[in-house]
Design goal:
six-stranded mixed beta sheet; 2 domains; Rossmann fold; alpha/beta; 13 helices; 13% strand; 40% helix; globular; four-stranded parallel beta sheet
Length: 391
């Protein structure tokens, strides 16, 4: 089997229980009297506004990816691009704001600062504007221009850094200097979301599958940036005692796969991920390796081929992280079909492709990055037409 067609995909290999660096909650500040009626009134109104956003936002759609009926396998994409801020990170930002408000960390007039590769910052800028506090996004200088435009559209400020590995320390420094709150999505994503239910993404998936022919999916495929989404889905599956398995695909230039495979909580990667929103240089505190069943290492060119196959199949452009997940989901479908198994598979449509027209949909950008999608596109064409994943 060629390298182009065989990303390494062993099943869970004992990363459970790996030690993690202790992360402490922000030290409470004394610039606000939390018994003051004006502060309590502001807090109640801020929480109401954030909760109202969830109440008036319809659930996202579950789209079907066309596969031959006779295969007996259904593939779905949970379309998170329809949130008000256009991505999966809208759920996370809402949870993080509620968590920070209820902990007393977000205060009137003080900025919220976040380390982000883009989409989380767009959503957090929206919620900061909603409750009337300033917002600063600390991001790699390579972040797509469309994402920085959206952050600024929602009233946020972009602080770009040349070395993506410095986003954490720069964010913490800006928070200390301004008296604001460093949201720290990479630490708090997995604990800010109620994984037992409360209309989280996992509960929504199962409710939307209730009338389908395979209502309990064989696999849910979720890429990892913070790791919060995969942790939420996996915990919900275990809590509800489902037999669904969780697969987390990892792009090139990310350490999650190696850290999960070896159980090394100190695994790291010095080259930044080309797939915005997923893949990290360090094992993030919100990535919970013991909760998931499988990981795949997915070449970036395969992710690019997959988003173009998605557009051909359903007429929708999506971001690169969607391609990473879709490539892995289709490989799992291929394994199920080869083994004569039936069932359903779910993956995520994380954000729209119009944010990346100058990157993932640009042949010039692909060439500049040295990415040849041809063998991966051929693999997908062969599989979708003949039902065989090429050796």
């Amino acid at each position: 089997m060629s390298t182009a067609q065989q990303p390494h995909t062993p099943h869970r290999a004992g990363a459970d229980g790996a030690p993690r660096t202790a992360v402490h909650a922000p030290t409470p500040t004394v610039d606000v009297d939390r018994t003051d009626p004006d502060y309590r009134s502001w807090l109640k109104e801020a929480v109401r506004k954030v909760q109202a956003d969830a109440n008036r936002t319809a659930d996202t759609h579950l789209l079907r990816f066309p596969l031959p009926e006779e295969w007996g396998i259904d593939l779905y994409l949970k379309d998170e691009s329809t949130h008000p801020t256009g991505s999966l990170k809208h759920r996370l930002a809402r949870s993080l704001f509620l968590y920070g408000l209820c902990n007393g960390w977000i205060r009137p007039g003080k900025p919220v600062i976040e380390a982000s590769s883009g989409s989380t910052a767009v959503s957090e800028a929206y919620f900061a504007s909603l409750i009337g506090v300033p917002f600063i996004a600390v991001m790699p200088a390579t972040t797509s221009r469309e994402k920085t435009r959206l952050i600024e559209f929602h009233g946020g400020t972009c602080h770009l850094v040349q070395d993506p590995r410095t986003v954490y320390e720069v964010s913490a420094r800006l928070a200390a200097e301004s008296g604001g709150h460093y949201m720290d999505q990479f630490t708090y994503a997995e604990r800010a979301t109620d994984w037992r239910g409360n209309n989280n993404i996992a509960e929504s998936i199962y409710e939307q599958l209730r009338l389908e022919r395979y209502p309990e999916p064989a696999w849910i495929v979720a890429t990892a940036g913070t790791g919060g989404t995969s942790a939420t889905i996996a915990r919900y599956v275990h809590y509800m005692q489902y037999d669904t398995r969780i697969c987390v695909p990892d792009p090139e230039n990310s350490c999650f796969f190696d850290g999960w495979l070896t159980g090394d909580a100190t695994a790291h990667c010095t080259t930044p991920s080309r797939i915005e929103g997923v893949g990290r240089p360090r094992m993030e505190p919100s990535f919970v390796p013991g909760a998931i069943d499988r990981m795949m290492k997915v070449p970036d060119a395969a992710s690019m081929a997959a988003v173009r196959a998605l557009e051909a199949a359903i007429g929708r452009k999506a971001g690169g992280s969607t391609g990473t997940g879709l490539w892995s989901a289709l490989r799992i479908v291929g394994e199920m079909h080869a083994a004569g198994r039936t069932g359903s598979v779910v993956t995520l449509l994380c954000d729209p492709g119009d944010r990346y027209l100058d990157k993932y949909y640009s042949d010039d950008w692909l060439a500049a990055q040295g990415l040849d999608i041809t063998p991966y596109a051929r693999t997908l064409d062969t599989f979708l037409s003949a039902g065989v994943w090429p050796d």
